[in-house]
């Protein structure tokens, strides 16, 4: 059980467009019929108020949504990649590697999948009736995020084996966790809710990490606790024993943490300050609840976010350069994503395809800009791993 983790999310790649021509008997020059690829799958984050911790996530775990399928012949479009839905605790804090933060209180498409690639039918025009170009799908995006659960309990019940931890949480919350008179009955942390008329609090029972090596891994769970109840039996109700137990916690709790002692096998009404702590007995369940709510900020029900009105924002086409020139290497590096995708989706080894690609560059004023920059012929035009000579 843990309340923080770091994972990597990668959305799906868009499917490649297809280069194809209609071929039927007695039909000459049937025209292009290459379909579009499918969009890549999105990464969707879904909050769940019943999720408390992040135990199901391994640190540095990688999550990928599915890629879109490629387009096919006869104008068949590829299938969209399946979305990946990840369920997280309600109101958890998400921080990206760039410092952007999000409180997850509603379902969000966190990363969009890559856009579909266009098939050659989309490149048909009045001056190009046999387009040999297609577009590769856009690559999916990657984000590394840190997740911190804000739905994690801030109150804990701890103590040695057979000191009454399970008995106490059952009586406070109405739960039915297992109670038995043998060592290490509780082997995993158990979370339940304490409710009153106004609000509720989550409380966690943690196994005996004082004596059981297997349970020591749960000790860091105390780090963010605001209230800790230590269960003891009447036989150990003395200052020496309590000081030893509390001393073992000092490096694992906040200084502001409120520590109380519960003597679980005492039938006397104790409820007093002693040895520097608040002392309760088995008869004081009502007082324990009141003490917990008094020393904790109540959990308020999540506020449903208002739906933002839809505003149409037209895409602004900026007149940016589509390349960078590296004079020392005599390389013209194409940085425009659309042109790179067309190059990746087409077979530029064929001269006739190169000619049509040349027209694409010409429409984007590539050659005019190159001449303005006084770049001499013979330089290499580089599009990722594709290289062409500037003639």
Topology diagram in text:
Layout: E1 4-10, E2 43-48, E3 61-64, E4 84-89, E5 92-96, E6 101-104, E7 108-111, E8 142-148, E9 155-159, H1 165-173, E10 190-195, E11 200-205, E12 227-232, H2 239-247, E13 258-263, E14 272-274, E15 277-281, H3 285-294, E16 323-326, E17 331-334, H4 337-345, H5 351-363, H6 366-372, E18 380-383, E19 386-389
Parallel strand pairs: 1-3, 2-4, 9-11, 9-12, 12-13, 13-15, 17-18
Antiparallel strand pairs: 1-8, 2-7, 5-6, 5-8, 10-11, 14-15, 16-17, 18-19
Q: Which term fits the overall shape?
A: elongated
Radius of gyration (CA) equals 32 Å
Number of separate helices:
6
Distance between the termini: 63 Å
Written as H for each helix and E for each strand, in order along the chain, the element string is: EEEEEEEEEHEEEHEEEHEEHHHEE
The biggest sheet, with number of strands, parallel, antiparallel or mixed sense and barrel status, is:
7 strands, mixed
Query: What is the level-2 CATH architecture name of the largest domain?
Result: Distorted Sandwich
| Domain unit count | 3
The first-level CATH class of the largest domain is given as Mainly Beta
Average pLDDT confidence is: 87
Number of strands: 19
Strand content: 15-25%
